[in-house]
Design brief:
Layout (H helix, E strand, L loop, with lengths): L1 H30 L3 H12 L4 H13 L27 E4 L9 E3 L18 E4 L1
Antiparallel strand pairs: 1-2, 1-3
Helix pairs in contact: 1-3, 2-3
C-alpha cells in the first residue's frame, strides 16, 4: 500500500506542477493568498518531504470549492477538475470511499440519480467541480 500512496503522491505533485497557475488563481480568489501552494513548491524546490504541504494544499482547494483538490488529476480520466473550463461548475458523483477509490461519474450521465458504490452499494456522493 505504501507504493500506491507514493504513486498517488507523485501523480498529485505532477498535477500541481501542470496546474500551478490556475491553482494559484483559485487560492487567491478564495483566501487572498496562495500560501499552501507556495509551501508545497518550496518543499519541492528544497527537496524536503512534500506530504504535509501537499495535504495542506489539497485541503485548501477543497475549502475553496474544488471537489477534487490536488488528487483530481489522480482519478481515472478526470484530467483537470474544478479548476479550468469547461469542467468548472459541473456536478460529479464521487465514490463514498474516495480516500481509497477513484471511481466517479458525471452527474449528467446518470439521469436516474447517483450510482452505487460497487463494494457496499452506498450511493455515490454528489459534488460540484
Amino acid at each position: 500500500m505504501r507504493d500506491a500512496g507514493l504513486a498517488e503522491e507523485k501523480t498529485a505533485i505532477a498535477y500541481v506542477c501542470r496546474q500551478h497557475r490556475p491553482i494559484r488563481e483559485v487560492l487567491l480568489a478564495d483566501r487572498g493568498d496562495a500560501a499552501p501552494l507556495d509551501r508545497l513548491l518550496s518543499a519541492l524546490a528544497d527537496d524536503t518531504p512534500p506530504a504535509t504541504p501537499l495535504r495542506d494544499l489539497h485541503q485548501a482547494l477543497l475549502q475553496a470549492g474544488d471537489a477534487m483538490g490536488v488528487y483530481g488529476g489522480t482519478r481515472e480520466g478526470t484530467g483537470v477538475l474544478g479548476l479550468l473550463p469547461p469542467l468548472a461548475g459541473k456536478n460529479i458523483f464521487l465514490c463514498p470511499r474516495r480516500r481509497r477509490c477513484t471511481r466517479f461519474h458525471w452527474a449528467e450521465d446518470e439521469p436516474n440519480g447517483p450510482p452505487a458504490c460497487g463494494i457496499d452499494r452506498t450511493p455515490m456522493l454528489l459534488k460540484r467541480t
